[in-house]
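Re: that backbone. Tokens:
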């Protein structure tokens, strides 16, 4: 069941902020990488290539954690845990252009 994103998290996602995405490796150890983020309604979008470590990890095990910090105020941040629910192809990189 999806949970509505609070307004303060939407503000962080809509701003020019980096996030850190944690995924699980095959052996259960964590893998963390910096990612661009954006929002599509209540869904969080990240730019992850299907053949990247992040892409392979989330296809095998969709559990993730994400932290995002306001670039202008590092004391303003959010931590989110959830699951990847959709993988979208973006051959024209339109979503990635919007994030960056």
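Recovered sequence:
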């Amino acid at each position: 069941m999806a949970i509505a994103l609070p307004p303060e998290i939407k503000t962080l996602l809509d701003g020019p902020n980096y996030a850190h995405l944690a995924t699980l490796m095959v052996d259960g150890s964590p893998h963390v990488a910096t990612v661009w983020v954006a929002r599509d309604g209540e869904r969080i979008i990240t730019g992850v290539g299907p053949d990247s470590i992040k892409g392979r990890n989330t296809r095998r095990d969709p559990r993730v954690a994400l932290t995002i910090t306001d670039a202008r105020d590092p004391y303003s941040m959010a931590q989110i845990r959830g699951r990847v629910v959709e993988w979208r192809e973006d051959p024209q990189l339109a979503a990635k252009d919007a994030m960056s």
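Strands lie at 18-24, 30-40, 43-46, 63-69, 77-83. The chain is about 20% helix and 35% strand.
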